[in-house]
Amino acid sequence: MHTRKQPKSEGVAIIGGGISQFGLFESYNSRDLVYEAYKETIKSVDKGINPSEIDELFIGNFTNDSFEGQAHIGHLITDWLGLTPRPASRIEGACASGGLAFRQAVNSVKAGVTKIALVVGVEKMANTKLSLVQDYLAKASDVSIEVNQGAFTFPAFYAVMASAYMEKYKMTRKHLMKVAIKNHDNASMNPKAQINLSIKQIMEKKKTQLEKAGSNKIFWADEFEFLFDITQNPLVSSPLHLFDCAPITDGAACLIITNEEIASQFSDSYVNILASEQASAGPIYTWGRDITSIPSSRDASMKAFDSAGVTPSDIDLTEVHDCFTPAEIMAIEDIGFFPKGQGAEATFAGETERSGNLPVNVSGGLKAKGHPVGASGIAQLVELWTQLSNKAGSRQLPKQQLNLGLAHNVGGTGGTCVISILESNQA
Fold first, then answer.
1. Is 95 an active-site residue?
2. Residue 101 has pLDDT above 80, yes or no
């Protein structure tokens, strides 16, 4: 067990968690998604919990106002779950909304203001036209400069960063493909994932379809050849192609947290929260010459490691914000897992696979599990809680002992980052 730098008399712990099915659900609204995740979360508390014991709700959501035309959703979700009159707060930080909600809940429990908190993340995106989805997501950037002064999309933003990284560190498209292949492999084991297929499985399905259509195409030797085929993996924003991008997703995720002193009353496998730290950064035009790294990721990581009293080498698994494949590579460097410029090669060498030294995005990540933006940060933490409490079943990591997990959740063009570090209580 790792030793904390500054042990505290009262800490905070996760006693339960769950997620909805991730995907595209035209007939569902955000309350339906939350209810599905909530039911699983209540059931996951192994010694049981009465919903009446929940004191407060913290809800991460980016832009329900736009996607569903419904603002002020906190009380509606509370009512839907049968938890009125508990207080509920909706917390927004673009794609980091879930991470922010979690951090605020942790601080509330730590301060003794809240005894038991339900943390929720949710986004309902599927019923919106793609062009409008892009417009709504673009609001997470600096609208006055990045949007109004020229065409802005998040694929274009990460394409610029990827291009700069490729030029500076000699990364190739095959390195990006390796991220996609790995994360789809992981998602193929996750029944809640939106894209529950490996790249190889997708390739074989395409092959079967083309053969049935009478095609005489010479088929792909492996996943890399498939991803190089522009007819199957079209260009989105150079150098990024379709399989470099996270999908549009509907989904919700929930956690129940309380103080460590009473956590054992609810669960024998609770997970301690060692740190949940946040940092801010200006938009990309304020970063200077180096756009191969996100400043808020570096700053939040340093704060979290200092708070937890651990180092990057102590971490056993991590869920990072892989909204695009280059984002994962830059994240594992910004956090400190690999030196700058070495993340791509480390990924290609298999160090971030399930069997590697540092498993990254064993859930499938945003890339394949799905990216319901307000829920993504909570879903990352649910995965860490699941793995650290040995509840992942057939997906359980093969490592003999998992002690520490880290979640990395980014909002907008890197303006917000939340880093949370969790610790198993299993000796």
1. yes
2. yes
